[in-house]
Amino acid sequence: MEKIESWLEENRSRFQEDLFALLRLASIGTDPAYDDQVRQTATWIHEFFQSISFTSEWIDTCGHPIIFAQSPHIEGAPTVLVYGHYDVQPPDPLELWDTPPFEPTERNGNVYARGATDDKGQMITHLFSCEAWMKVNGGLPLNVKFLIEGEEESGSSGLNELLAGVYDEKLGMPVAEKLAADIAVISDTSQYGPGQPAITYGLRGIYYFELRLKGPNVDLHSGAFGGSVSNPANALTEMLAALKDDHGRIQVPGFYDGIVELTEEERKQFAGLNFDDEAYKKSLGIDEVFGEEGFTTLERRWARPTFDINGLWSGYQGEGAKTVLPAEAGAKFSFRLVPGQDLKTIKSGLEKLLAENCPPGIEMKLIDMHGANGVVVSLDNPYMKLAANAVEKGFGTKPVFTRSGGSIPVVLSFRELLGIDTMLLGWGLDDDNPHSPNEKFSLSDFFKGIKSSAWLWNELAAK
Amino acid sequence: MEKIESWLEENRSRFQEDLFALLRLASIGTDPAYDDQVRQTATWIHEFFQSISFTSEWIDTCGHPIIFAQSPHIEGAPTVLVYGHYDVQPPDPLELWDTPPFEPTERNGNVYARGATDDKGQMITHLFSCEAWMKVNGGLPLNVKFLIEGEEESGSSGLNELLAGVYDEKLGMPVAEKLAADIAVISDTSQYGPGQPAITYGLRGIYYFELRLKGPNVDLHSGAFGGSVSNPANALTEMLAALKDDHGRIQVPGFYDGIVELTEEERKQFAGLNFDDEAYKKSLGIDEVFGEEGFTTLERRWARPTFDINGLWSGYQGEGAKTVLPAEAGAKFSFRLVPGQDLKTIKSGLEKLLAENCPPGIEMKLIDMHGANGVVVSLDNPYMKLAANAVEKGFGTKPVFTRSGGSIPVVLSFRELLGIDTMLLGWGLDDDNPHSPNEKFSLSDFFKGIKSSAWLWNELAAK
């Protein structure tokens, strides 16, 4: 590894030049005006893999192309699947950028550009580490597969078709066989804080619903009719409020059944992160945190299920007073889920509870928008320990193990389709502005990421 | 009265011609493009009063002019104050009218035009009855004052200033003295049904609020933050739902205090109206009526207080799913009130109950939009019995006594400013479309209204 480390040091400025070249391509996947630059970006990656003697396949999809690349095959060695995306968020509002989004600029040790951290800068660390192994050692110590899409920011239509088997013929085999691996790696998240790398080992799931209530066939005058017919807006507040009790406990029958509770070790770990509630409250402009009794803020965010209303509407929303008894009311709401919860149980329990609380004269319609389970990789998973070693080598600091309150659908797909866990090795920082103006990525973390990745191949090969 | 009745019969077609002339004037008070026709309408009324030897005063206001007219004074006789309005609702959508809104057309015994029933056609019955008395008898048997405004459909700014004393100098005396009367009469409502005239003796009051909740300073990602901070949309549903218990009883402390309950006689009267719940449900497209336990539909609509949400908003209301934890949520809601309830008690009780249910981390702001008490005229009021006699003479049928769930602010003003009750003598029908296309008014009811009004002066004078 000494030789590889030296080679990485020597090529530091070239890595940066390559990163800047990649960031200059405006691969805005949502906007057809940029289709040409999207394809140039895919081409850049495709050609990069070819230049380091990987087999690289260009897969045209219903959306933007997917690049699938593999290191030279080593029989019997473990296989790692690396996922990344080369598309970026639209840069608007442009006027809030200090320097243009597609003219990468170095400032205060960071590169500022759209895609710097999400995900070009993070993804490419794994490409450069492979290059190092190929050039210094003539090969990698294990099998690495890359799956890089161009629609992460716009619904992953192509990837979803690929995972569903639509392109099996192009792949020459079933997709599960093509992607088969022992473990997956994604670098598209953040460190716990500056100087404190993290491995995210758990994600919450989600179950998103829309509820529509219909009362009278037209908006009525609340004076002439009020009191004699059910008001859908009142019914909506009553039905949604009934989903929680006075202690904030979610009342959907079976909701908490089967939950894999946090272990003492996990709770100790979270507590060791010294999360600062005061700073958190200040940053959000609130005077109190609030959540499930008996849990800390980090536990509530990362490892407990929730019920949040995402949208509400009914009747008159304009200026002044309008005495309307609305004909309709609606809400969007979602549950965040943790491993062990069952989507079917939740849906049927929810339907039952809502129906019980639906007053006479109101028709309800519950729309199932989408559901996904929570996932957690066991901290005893040997790959996790090896990855932690690699990150420590790269960053000079032991990573902490964190979870995230959000959902990353591809992680669930990998578990369901390939039966493998995903390790989220995030090189970014929480203030990188991935979907906002002035997106940035620390250049020293960029280099530490490359180094960590080079070590990762070494460590995982030892399994 | 025989001579007057004959004279009315003889002038039937002339009344209709005059009505049509008045309806041809597009007195759309909300639209400055029609200011000229609004003034022509006021002029028509002003000159009519002058033509029957009433003193008529043209009062310019901050809005459209008010016409105040008085019959020749009779010392010691009772005084009746008649209120009406000469402005009309905008006629849009024009394409839904079968004949143009300002070309009055006779069809199936009705006149179709904007303003036919609301309120030109109803108001003018009292002008023609006065004309009859003046022309046949040379005078009225009592004192009649007319207060006719041009902004009923657009907020009554001028009337409100008049009632507040702003134009006292123009009036030559305090407004309460100018308008002083023993009883007020308004014809701007409906009969109970075709062939069944009604006197409305009670109106509900209203107390309208807007509630705004603020949580975090920006919309948050519900995955990253959900469960750790109060969600204003959740808080809104909980706080509003807590305003009623499981039996629909309003929980605002002191809300029901002092309510003047329906008498047995009133309940018997309402029951005698044989209100058809099945037809009601069918017309509203609902499968069940619903309201306060122990009361009929009519009692719930006319004589019980309510809590209705008029509008709700928060977070994402568009297509699809957005995982937002909203920064804000809001609602408009109102209570309908019945006599005896106290506005101050309700407001302070409401503030208290909402504050108790407002979760940590949420700032609430309650905006008092407007409040007005409910009013009821005692059925023992001697004027009511006399008015009932008059209506019976005019329509050939005893009127029933009804209440209305809505509010008419001027009725409350008359009580507060002048200390008098108002009798609502409605010549219209529920399907007259007063605020919709194809507004109509039965020409035979128009004539019966004139006849009732002529008898009204006779009856009331006998008090």
Automatic annotation (TrEMBL), chains A, B:
Name one molecular function that GO assigns to this entry. Answer: peptidase activity
Among InterPro entries, the record links this protein to: Cyt/Met_Dipeptidase, Peptidase_M20, Peptidase_M20_dimer
Keywords on record = Hydrolase, Metal-binding, Protease
Q: What is its EC number?
A: 3.5.1.18
Report domain Peptidase M20 dimerisation positions.
201-360
Position of the signal peptide: none
Highest taxon of the source? Bacteria
Q: Does the keyword Metal-binding apply?
A: yes
Q: Which GO terms describe its biological process?
A: proteolysis
NCBIfam families for this protein = PRK08201.1, PRK09104.1
Protein name, entry field: Succinyl-diaminopimelate desuccinylase
Task: Give the organism the record lists.
Answer: Mariniblastus fucicola
